[in-house]
Write a structure and sequence with these properties.
Radius of gyration: 24 Å
Function: Induces bone formation in conjunction with TGF-beta-1 or TGF-beta-2.
GO biological process, one term: articular cartilage development
GO cellular component, one term: extracellular matrix
Protein name: Mimecan
Subcellular location: Secreted, Extracellular space, Extracellular matrix
Number of strands: 11
Order of helices and strands: HHEEEEEEEEEEE
Shape: elongated
Helix content: 10-25%
Number of helices: 2
Strand content: 5-15%
């Protein structure tokens, strides 16, 4: 009887081990290449080259995958990791983001896609507070007119060093907008303010950078009446 019990115990142990292995194995490559701490995954300058978003452990809240060779974000990459709050993919070679790639990330607050090769933006998650797409190849036709308008919690919007021809619409919540070194040639009375409402104020907006654009801001004196301070840019 004791022998039968021992064999049964051994079998149960083996089964438990197998189940444990099954749970660990999918994430092992990521956590060997990267540093995995509770809720955070750091994959910076990984060698050999990381060309796709790695498989993330469940419950990951913070992903830092900077300075790799990731070239595309697919709709599946983040589909199961709904706990993400911050994603930093600065300094990759991303040229394509599939539709819906971020659509399940209802908790995401910070997203950096700076220093990549993007020509257009996907739909962004509604709770974003900071979005950084500095140093890409974005043109106005690749940024939907409403891309940022519905992001009612957005505070920081960084779109410097792209090829934008116009200032995108952005919500009242925004405090800092960086649009320096683009190809913006003109603005209107409705770009920052509401041309038909002289009483309209935008108290949150404290910093607008437009330097390094062809637009001559002094040609549009009525375009800044709602702002606390004038945009940084060319006036003569």
């Amino acid at each position: 009887d004791r022998q039968t019990d021992r064999q049964a115990d051994r079998q149960t142990d083996r089964q438990t081990d197998r189940q444990a292995d099954r749970q660990v194995i999918p994430y092992l490559p990521t956590c060997l290449l990267c540093v995995c701490l509770t809720g955070s995954v750091y994959c910076e300058e990984v060698s050999p080259d990381m060309t796709a978003v790695p498989t993330l452990p469940k419950e990951t809240a913070y992903l830092y995958a900077r300075y790799n060779k990731i070239n595309k974000i697919t709709a599946k990459d983040f589909a199961d990791i709904v706990t993400l709050r911050r994603i930093d993919l600065t300094g990759n070679v991303i040229s394509e983001i599939e539709d819906g790639a971020f659509s399940k990330l209802t908790l995401l607050e910070e997203l950096s896609l700076a220093e990549n090769r993007l020509v257009k933006l996907p739909m962004l998650p509604a709770k974003l507070t900071t979005f950084n797409a500095n140093y890409n190849l974005l043109r106005t036709k690749g940024v939907k007119a409403t891309a940022f308008k519905k992001l009612t919690k957005l505070v920081n919007l960084f779109l410097a060093n792209n090829q934008l021809e116009a200032v995108p619409q952005f919500p009242e919540s925004v405090r800092i907008v960086h649009l320096q070194n683009n190809n913006i040639t003109e603005i209107s009375a409705d770009t920052f303010c509401k041309g038909n409402d002289t009483y309209y104020l935008r108290p949150n907006l404290s910093e607008v950078r437009m330097d390094g654009n062809p637009v001559l801001l002094s040609k549009y004196p009525n375009s800044f009446t709602c702002l606390k301070s004038l945009p940084i840019g060319r006036y003569n």
